[in-house]
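Worked example 3 (structure in, sequence out).
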């Protein structure tokens, strides 16, 4: 899922031929619950934006009077580019709207993303009694002081509302906002069940009818004037609204538990599924031991696999007094063994090459020679010449 908030990001995504779903927001989408502000935008920037159908912004279906709406316009350039995109496209505002309407408590939903110049583009939705009351947009520097200043008027006006901080904003900075008792990070919760909406390439009316009386009126007019044609279109519109309401209702069951409880359950599940680290080291040690033991005439002196953090290197004095083995603590393992010298092989390096190749192939690890030495080892009554190798490497 990619958040696209500028034409540069959209052009880059189209250039690589991606088919991943995208969330459209930021400077490419204009949203407001104020019809006057929306019409003013269209009057001034009619060539830049394409108005989309208004979104129902009140829970309760047709029985509720004075329904609120969210007005949406999308960049004309973005609509033209998306027409050739193979993946699915969603509007970020639709997801926040659906999530806010699904909350029983009065709430402020704060979402958005990072702009191309590094600012936080905040899209703020205020919901009261499961109805959209206000929308705001803020562009602020990503630090706590400026964030508090940018939102202080909204928080003061709706002091009793829950505050939900949503993705793709990421973690909030440490500030007065994030320390409030009514502040919650809900992460990707609004994006779990995406609400699909068609993206229109031609301007749509801002006076879409919603309610029983307009429905009955249209049905009667349709029967008299155009017969089944108008009735069919109305049925399609009703089906789309019903699907939209169904998508919203899905949030209530999915998020009855608090975010803290869900985080705790996920953490417990992670701990139960995580194997102790020493089991992996023991398995790797056993594999290396078995493969080294297959070398002809081998005498194994030491095989050791290190922890991720070697406690021996905790101080400078300890590091200065380390043996050659300890100096290689940056490696994942240390192996030391001796093998009889082969007379028809020239040097220790020449004899080591096939041994290393065999170990690399059998263990899947990267093994290298750190050091070697010649030594005499008594076997029975006779002394034999051996090469003593010290190996290190990585287990990946």
């Amino acid at each position: 899922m990619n958040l696209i908030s500028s034409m540069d990001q959209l052009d880059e995504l189209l250039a690589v031929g991606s088919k991943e779903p995208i969330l459209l927001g930021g400077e490419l989408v204009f949203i407001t619950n104020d019809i006057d502000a929306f019409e003013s935008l269209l009057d001034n920037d009619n060539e830049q934006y394409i108005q989309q159908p208004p979104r129902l912004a009140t829970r309760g279906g047709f029985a509720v009077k004075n329904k609120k709406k969210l007005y949406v316009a999308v960049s004309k350039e973005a609509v033209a580019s998306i027409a050739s995109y193979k993946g699915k496209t969603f509007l970020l505002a639709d997801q926040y709207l659906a999530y806010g309407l699904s909350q029983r408590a009065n709430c402020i939903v704060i979402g958005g993303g990072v702009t191309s110049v590094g600012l936080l583009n905040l899209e703020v939705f205020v919901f009261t009694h499961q109805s959209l009351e206000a929308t705001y947009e803020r562009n602020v520097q990503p630090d706590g002081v400026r964030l508090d200043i940018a939102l202080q008027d909204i928080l003061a006006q709706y002091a009793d509302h829950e505050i939900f901080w949503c993705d793709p904003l990421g973690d909030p900075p440490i500030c007065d906002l994030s320390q409030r008792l009514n502040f919650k990070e809900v992460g990707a919760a609004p994006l779990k069940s995406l609400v699909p909406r068609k993206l229109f390439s031609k301007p749509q009316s801002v006076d879409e009818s919603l309610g029983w009386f307009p429905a009955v009126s249209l049905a009667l007019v349709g029967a008299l004037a155009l017969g089944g044609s108008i009735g069919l279109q109305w049925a399609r519109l009703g089906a789309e609204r019903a699907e939209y309401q169904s998508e919203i209702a899905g949030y209530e069951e999915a998020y009855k538990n608090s975010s803290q409880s869900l985080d705790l359950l996920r953490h417990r599940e992670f701990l139960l599924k995580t194997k102790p680290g020493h089991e992996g080291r023991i398995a790797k040690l056993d594999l290396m031991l078995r493969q080294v033991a297959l070398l002809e005439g081998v005498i194994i002196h030491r095989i050791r696999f290190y922890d991720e953090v070697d406690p021996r290197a905790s101080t400078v004095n300890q590091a200065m007094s380390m043996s050659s083995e300890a100096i290689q603590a940056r490696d994942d393992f240390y192996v030391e063994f001796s093998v009889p010298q082969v007379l028809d092989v020239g040097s220790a390096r020449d004899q080591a090459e096939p041994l290393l190749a065999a170990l690399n192939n059998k263990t899947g690890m990267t093994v290298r020679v750190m050091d070697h030495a010649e030594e005499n080892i008594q076997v029975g009554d006779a002394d034999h010449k051996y090469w003593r190798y010290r190996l290190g490497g990585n287990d990946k």
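Notes: Residues 124 and 136 are 5 Å apart (CA to CA). The chain is about 40% helix and 25% strand.
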